[in-house]
Amino acid sequence: MNRRACLEALLPLVTDQLVVASVSGQWVWGQISRHEGNLLLGSMGNALGVGMGMALGLPHRQVIVIESDGSVLLSLFNLPTLGTLHPDNLKVFVFDNEAYSGSRISRPTATAAKTDIAAIARDSGIERAVTVRDLDAFNREMSSALKGPGLGFVVAKIEETFEHRNAERSDVDLMENKYRFVRYVERTEGKPIFLGRG
Amino acid sequence: MEPDLASKLVNGLRSAGINFVTYLPETRLSQILPLMREDKFFQLAPVASEAEGVSIAAGASLGGKQVACYMEGTGVFVSTYNLLTVAERFGVPMLLLVSYVGSVADKRNSFLYVRRGTRMIPVWEALGIEYQILSDGENLETRIKDAARMMHALKLPVVLLFTGEFTS
Hints:
The complex is a heterodimer of chains A (198) and B (168).
Chain A: H1 3-10, E1 18-21, H2 23-32, E2 38-40, H3 47-57, E3 63-68, H4 69-74, H5 78-85, E4 90-96, E5 99-100, E6 107-108, H6 117-123, E7 130-132, H7 135-147, E8 152-157, H8 163-166, H9 174-189
Parallel strand pairs in A: 1-2, 1-3, 3-4, 4-8, 7-8
Antiparallel strand pairs in A: 5-6
Chain B: H1 3-15, E1 20-23, H2 32-38, E2 43-46, H3 50-62, E3 67-72, H4 73-90, E4 94-99, H5 114-118, H6 120-127, E5 130-134, H7 140-154, E6 157-162
Parallel strand pairs in B: 1-2, 1-3, 3-4, 4-6, 5-6
Helix pairs in contact in B: 1-7, 3-4
């Protein structure tokens, strides 16, 4: 199982949800999805927090977070906070390749040793956190998380792939992405996001 | 902080439209928390780190909430990565409510806090984030509204640093 196969499986299930992706997920997701509700953060350690805030602020709207093992480990304090605040409309997918797989390096993360992100999540109060190890299980748990009620948290153990090292980099600046995202939220929620319009 | 001042601060936030607040409790301004908890106007999000306080507030802001992050000055040093990579880089309006521990007018200043205080302003200047220092309750509501208007105009965080009467 690899990240692209999982995200291609997720793609048809994304309609009007808001999607927040951390840096490792955004290469593939940004290529295959042109959804206006994508917020591609371009940094590690922020997607879960930003997605959590969005889900709390828009409790009627489903919010999807695309995370990675390195990014979750960088902001591990997110898990007890998520378990405490527990937004039922948030669906988190952590793609765990057990590696810091940057543009040039490949070094193991703690999940390559003994750390189990789903277990930490469960012990933090995210009761339904699960780990999946093949595409059939991913499809089943993803579908259940998106279609069912409650906070979803799926850790997908994936192979390390290197396509991101050769992938064409997007020329959509983070600020441009933000405005496209915000205008989409304004249009679909029927309310202004930014005030101070002169 | 005297109870009246805490009420003025909370009323100021309310009248500035702030309706979503992330927080990590600290000593100087903590009297505002029960007041906000009792007021349904405010949606509160307790956090485990000031770093995620910023990221969660950013997400809520991009979803249409008028947000504030309440933290001790020490938390500023914890959250600079998130301030830079999300709030500043994306341009997200948020009001930062920071107890200015270790500042000259901090009534509880000691060797524990002073180093943090002396390095506080250079951090905001390095981040390019506007700040205001508040040491008393005079015109507090107006000053909070001014800061909120500034954050909307800039589409960036704006910081209120509380010292003096707020730290007694």
